[in-house]
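Pinned message: reference record for Probable sugar-binding periplasmic protein
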Amino acid sequence: MRKPLAAVAGLAVAGLVLAGCSSSADDGDKAGSNDASEVEVFTWWASGSEKTGLDALVKVFNEQYPDTKFVNAAVAGGAGSNAKNALASRLKANNPPDSFQAHAGAELTDYIEADKIEDLSSFYEENGLNDVFPSTLIDRLTVDDKIYSVPSNVHRANVVWVNTDLLTKAGIDPKTGPADLDAWLADMKKLKAAGVATPLSVATDWTQVQLFENVLLATLGAEGYQGLWDGSTKFDDAKVTDAIDSYTELLSYANTDGTGQDWPVATDMVIDGTAAYNVMGDWALAEFDAKGKTYGTDYITWPTPGTDGMFDFLADSFTLPVGAPHAGGAKNWLKAISSADGQKAFNLAKGSIPARTDADSADYPEYQQGAMASFAKDTVVSSLAHGAAVKVSWLNDITSSIGQFVSTKDAGVLQDALVQAQTKGLGK
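Predicted structure (tokens):
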């Protein structure tokens, strides 16, 4: 049986932690070499819009640092799981790349605890990043007063992608999102009655977790949702029960063949008109662009019903591994990805928004302008499915529980499993 992405990555990172705890002095000088002749950058951006974004970023890097050779160490497949497994093997063998991609936030915990990545706090000070990154982002990058990664972007996970034609034909105004989950479910019922077989599209395990986190956020609110990750909100709370009930009803309007399909399959169902809605991060923007669809005409977006005024955050970020053979090259890479030009080139291609507050929204199309305004004023919360809210082992437990629930629809078993996962994740 295929393991969920979080489980596969979790096994790899678990091995990494053990390796970190038992490693000898083979790491040598923690600062690594200041050699800037090249930089080997490890990502899972090997195809599609992600590769397009990486290529745009590399072009800026080559212009800024022509004497540093860029070495692309991207690993394809498994929605990032293949890359994470390969990376864990390299770090365990003390053979790190010069920089590697990760999600900012709790996903980095295992690397930090295994002493595999450098503190970049001084890099932030030297390059003025504390002044151009917003405090909401700096807070989410900081662990015990230290910062370990540099974000290339900010993504939003509470976005509904809407096929305007299907809604219009069903007598639903596509430009105004429903006020809450109940109103959204009522619209899905209308779509079914109008002959739309699949009102809501889903794909592989992590997309189902992302949908569930959106339902939690809509039901609990920002404070209640964030409380799940520090224990101030319990998973046996009655509102979590309500969220599971709403999630169950949402899945009754979704395709049943999503598990095993990667996210573009679900997004393409909205693009080709076989589904009305898809809850997906704003990397989906590049998929719509690639298929020649026009924002506001062929499709539109709104925050997941019930989450207006909240921004469900994640960010792609890059690290400086302990013992990087070309630490000078890695620092050049980190400077490039955090620069105004680097962030502009990358985010225009990726569909995300720049992490820098000095970016000009006029340089971006309509969706990204709206996302930039929302990130500046909304309540920011950390994404569960994308490693910002909890460490890998806790996400692994939740993903397994959601995977089982999608098959059984046993709400009681799911809630019990979530309670156990919280207890384990908080170390209680």
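Pinned by admin. Summary line: The first helix runs from residue 5 to 22.
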